[in-house]
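ARCHIVE CARD
CATEGORY: sequence design from structure
SOURCE FIELD: tokenized fold
FIELD CONTENT:
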């Protein structure tokens, strides 16, 4: 069987998945190969309140946090960090560092991530 230029494949069922994917047409093979590569390189990041606030509000360091995490990162947080993030947002709002719209939008975005289970 042609392995598509792969010279060595490690264990744990990886060989079988490649064999199944390769028995399909070339375009499907490329899609399956890309999916396998994504599965290998996805990491889970546990976010604290500092990182969550940087993701929710544009401020110094936000771009660095966003570029580090990237669009495909799996993000998790604890209930304590979630509550702390809401507190930080409230404090920034009370000190007039963010507007009413920014405060409400940030809280809603955080809640949306929790409901969708993308941050928990």
């Amino acid at each position: 069987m042609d392995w598509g230029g792969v010279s060595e494949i490690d264990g744990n069922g990886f060989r079988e998945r490649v064999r199944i994917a390769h028995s399909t047409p070339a375009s499907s093979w490329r899609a399956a190969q890309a999916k396998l590569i994504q599965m290998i390189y996805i990491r889970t990041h546990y976010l604290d309140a500092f990182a969550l606030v940087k993701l929710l509000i544009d401020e110094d360091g936000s771009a660095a946090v966003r570029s580090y995490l990237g669009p495909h990162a799996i993000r998790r947080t604890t209930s304590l960090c979630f509550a702390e993030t809401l507190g930080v947002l409230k404090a920034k709002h009370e000190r007039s560092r963010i507007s009413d719209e920014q405060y409400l939008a940030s809280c809603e975005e955080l809640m949306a991530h929790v409901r969708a289970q993308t941050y928990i």
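CARD ANNOTATION: Residues 9-41 form one domain. The radius of gyration is 21 Å.
SHELF: design records, drawer C
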